[in-house]
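Hi P.,

Sorry for the delay on this. The queue was packed all week, but I finally got your sequence through. Input first:
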Amino acid sequence: MVRFGGICGILYVVLAIPSFIVGHPALIDDETNPQEVVDYFNTGQAGFLVWNGQLFIFAFFFFLWFLGTLHGMLRHAEDAEETGLPSVVLAGGLTLITLKLVGVSAEIDYPSTLSRFDNVLEDAQLAFLSLELSGWLYHYAYNVGAAVLIAATSMVALNTSVLPRWLAWAGLGVALVMLLHFIIPLGSLLALL
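Then the structure:
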């Protein structure tokens, strides 16, 4: 079953990659004019809905199988210690996947509405709102949910040696960077290095 969970984790990543290539709310910034934000959604609208919407349904299906397997594996690795960390991993993963799914829904809401209803007019303000809402949901998903998932998994790995120690320490470092990204734009600082 552990191999199945690992395969599901890989399938999640493979299925999620196209959505990052097709579009991401961070591509729109303060200097973006209204026509550019409308064009962001209109260029390849059908593809946008498939890659950012429908394909993610399958990606999330596999993530949930991965998460359940990871939770079980970490509980088994802890054996009698019962620190509660595997449950924290599960909570972090469910937070990540829930907020990510809601973020995807917010991001595709505008183009989906335009695609479905003929009498809806293009509105850059709604497009900006859709992108900003999805952007914040993605931040919460990764900077909170994923950070908790990675940190708790790393802590179990340090306590049980279920993963190499260097990987557990690296995971804690990644989780810290993700969490602190809310306070300091660490991605920008790291890019300068």
